[in-house]
Amino acid sequence: MFEGRDFRAAAEAFLYPEDASFLGLISYLQALSRRLSLALEEDLRVNNLEELQVEYTRLFITSPYRTPAPPYASVYLSSDRRLKGEGYDEALDFYRRAGYQPVEEGELADHVSYELAFVALLLEEGNLDLLREFLERHFLRWYPRFLTVLKQARPGPFYRALGDLVLGLTNRLREEVTYEKEGLS
């Protein structure tokens, strides 16, 4: 089974690449790609942190007309594509059910990075029932839509590969959690 640190690495990779410490994630993500039998190692290579910062800003923060690939569940689960809509409320509900009260500083609670960190917490706590429910009823309802929009925004190789890596990782975890649940029944 995958570990919380796998999802923490993916969560961190979906945050703004502040400094050179971000580059330390690269080899971990490449190894994760190999564990998933995905051929993403070359695409996950980063040669220039500044270029990655510019790409992150272009894709996820702002552009002259709109944000090409907003990384928030509410955008993909709300009929009017607005922030703090249905997906945001769902995420908060799952967090509270797990006993967490998110403090919103910086990103919103339904940001892809926060949701991946939540998956890590549930996995580390062994809360497999809630984890399976979160993946099936929330994360995997919106994330594939986000990935489609991200690819339409023509990302560089790193964010395209990261998007595919996270989809592969969460789908595989859902299978493992479902199998474990059925095996224990």
Automatic annotation (TrEMBL):
Gene3D superfamilies: TorD-like
Superkingdom as given in the UniProt entry: Bacteria
Keyword Chaperone: yes
Keyword Phosphoprotein recorded: no
InterPro entries hit by this protein: DMSO/NO3_reduct_chaperone, TorD-like_sf, TorD/DmsD_chaperones
Keyword terms of this UniProt record: Chaperone
Protein name: Molecular chaperone TorD
